[in-house]
Amino acid sequence: MLLFAADLIKATIRILSGELEERTGVDVYGRYLPVSESVIRTPAVSLHFNLIERVIRYAYQKIGEPLLTVPRWPGSAPLALFLSHDVDVVKKWTTKRIAYEVFRSAAELARFRPRRMKLTLESLFEALRHNDPYWNFDDLTFLESGNGFVSTWFFAPFGDEYDRRERSYDPIYNRKPSEITAKIRRLREHGCEIALHGTRGAHLDGSVLGRQLDSYETRLGFKFSGIRQHYLMFRHGRTLEAAAEAGLIYDATLGFSDLPGFRNGMAAPFFLNPVEHPAGRIVEIPLHFMDTVFRNSGMNPDAMKRRIIEAYLYAKTAGGLFSVVVHPGNMDPSELSELESFYRTFLPRCRMDNAHSMTGDRIARWWLEREQVLRAIEYLPDFWRIRDVTIPADMEFSLTVPNIKSMKFSLEGARGSSSLTGNTLTIRPGPVDSSKGISVRRKR
Fold first, then answer.
1. CA 355 to CA 66: how far, in whole Å?
2. CA-CA distance, 116 to 103, in Å (whole number)?
3. By CB count within 10 A, which of 171, 268, 315, 418 is most buried?
4. DSSP summary character for residue 31
5. Rounded to whole angstroms, how far apart are CA atoms 419 and 243?
6. Facing residues of 380 across strands?
7. What are phi and psi of 271, to 5 degrees?
8. Could you report the per-residue pLDDT of 55-109, keeping only the tens digit for each?
9. What fold, for 1-63+77-91+132-376?
10. 405-413: which pairs have CB atoms within 8 A and are 24 or more residues apart?
11. 272-328: per-residue pLDDT in tens?
12. How many CB atoms lie within 10 A of CB 406?
């Protein structure tokens, strides 16, 4: 029997379920207000799970029995990285924006501050050469792919009725639909995922969300897997249910726009609802860092960079996921001057940490497949079997026990490879016939 001095399960459920934030009230947009920083600054739930896992590993080690585990990420990667982009604007220099910037720049010039006028004129000159600073998707893709990473792009619906929505809230794309469609296809050619950026009402109503998806899928000819709601709009008991009704498999909304952190205490994907719930198969991919923290937090840029890296290191320590949102328009130095340089140094850091980059669709499908594998494992004395379930080709299994070198095991159904490191046997089964599955037997 394992005894814990604290009620970890109760504390975990309260943080994970969103119970705490439902008591905080809402802001002018109807969003829950953040709970105490002591709850969200660290991935408390992930660390609770890791503690329980370590105790179980210790118990098995003490009794000298083999323990079969499924690593969290493909190839036993130490950390997963989810890079994403919310596309709110696609063109900076509209007539209204030109008039606004020239007026503000002239006011700054009158105070003997010429820098804003200089940046405005430079940016306008580049736009005349068809280099609008908000239409920088190729530059971002090149930066990420150069580090071996992929990303997910969340596009709001556009064209027809969606060009007449409320400009004070929802994105407006001031470009021809054909230009946007061509850019989306180009992103997919580079291995990126395209997902939905839900607009007003989509986080509360499955039929509204379904119409937005239909408008895209009819235009593009492929189905979407996931969504992030605009303004991070989320309502417990409504938002994931709407996503499930619309046929999506993941949501990536739960996070903050003003601070890095762990809104539900998780540095990993999770299921917010039980299996029998209508939204029980929706994978929630939490958000840990949104670029708007440089504008909304009130902290100076250097302090904010330290805070972001702190959150990243917490996620890395938890062996989990770090999720990032960068708006393409904010990479314009005149918008968030610190963002571009930070992002260019952050990506190589993740690469050197061997972070495994995944799109939202890949994360969600991996998490669903991993859940099915975990549920299908049969544990018998000296025998483990997994069958009648799809085992991803890049999924590994670890068998740990003291003195494993003096033991003998037989493996059936796998055509891959295995390796022994210390007291752990790592099994890489490769392609597996799901009807036959794989089995591991300890020989006495």
1. 29
2. 11
3. 315
4. P
5. 41
6. 383
7. -100, 120
8. 889 999 999 889 999 999 999 999 999 999 999 999 887 777 777 777 777 776 6
9. TIM Barrel (3.20.20)
10. 407/66, 407/442, 407/443, 408/442, 408/443, 409/440, 409/441, 409/442, 409/443, 410/440, 410/441, 410/443, 411/438, 411/439, 411/440, 412/438, 412/439, 412/441, 413/387, 413/437, 413/438, 413/439
11. 988 889 899 999 999 999 999 999 988 999 999 999 999 999 999 998 899 999 999
12. 7
Out of 113-117, 341-345, 418-422, 430-434, which region has the weakest mean confidence (pLDDT)? 113-117
Strands 151-155, 226-229: pairing is unpaired
Q: Are 379 and 361 in contact (CB under 8 A)?
A: no
SS3 state of residue 271: strand
Indicate the helix (H) or strand (E) that contains 105: helix 95-110
d(CA 74, CA 359): 13
The pair of three-digit structure tokens given for residue 193, joined into one six-digit string? 């995922």
- pLDDT band at residue 24, thresholds of 50, 70 and 90? confident
Nearest to 312 by CA among 324, 303, 295: 324
What distance in Å separates the CA atoms of residue 41 and residue 267, rounded to the nearest whole number? 11
Q: Which residue has the tokens 């439902």?
A: 22
Distance CA 189, CA 182 (A): 11
Cα three-residue angle 88-93-95, rounded to 5 degrees: 110
| Residue position matching structure tokens 């799970």 | 49
| 3-class DSSP assignment, residue 19 | coil
What are the structure tokens assigned to 351, written together?
A: 């690469």
Tokens of 189: 């050619």
Report whether 367 contacts 34 (CB < 8 A).
no
In DSSP terms, 441 is beta-bridged to 383, 410
Please state, in angstroms and rounded to a whole number, the distance separating the CA atoms of residues 43 and 267.
6
